[in-house]
Specification:
By secondary structure, the chain is α+β, with helices and mostly antiparallel strands. The protein is 42% helix and 12% strand. It is built from four helices and three strands; from the N terminus they run αβααββα. Strand 2 and strand 3 (75-79) form a beta hairpin.
């Protein structure tokens, strides 16, 4: 098998990552509580390509106040903008010096 065929086969079987055409910004997301519970929050993260946020991390962040929530009819509701802010708060390092 030639090197070209090997490269084509590797490319065809490699898992594809969704490509973003532009960088995400907070202004792109709603401030209204549209995500019900942890499942709704995880659905938001899946939509933007983040699959590593666990239920227990969301629960801890909600209980400790790291993640803003709306309490409506005894359910936690989350706004996309708040979920995005929480995700950005998890960053560390980099050149900006803003991250802790």
């Amino acid at each position: 098998m030639s090197q070209v065929q090997t490269a084509q086969r590797a490319t065809a079987t490699a898992p594809s990552q969704p490509r973003r055409s532009r960088q995400l910004r907070r202004e792109d997301f709603s401030n209204l509580p549209t995500r019900k519970g942890r499942e709704g929050a995880k659905a938001f993260y899946a939509e933007i390509g983040v699959h590593s946020i666990t239920d227990s991390r969301l629960r801890h962040a909600t209980e400790s106040g790291e993640l803003k929530r709306f309490k409506i009819a005894s359910h936690n509701w989350y706004a996309d903008a708040d979920l995005f802010d929480f995700l950005m708060s998890l960053a560390s390092g980099g050149r900006g010096g803003d991250a802790a």
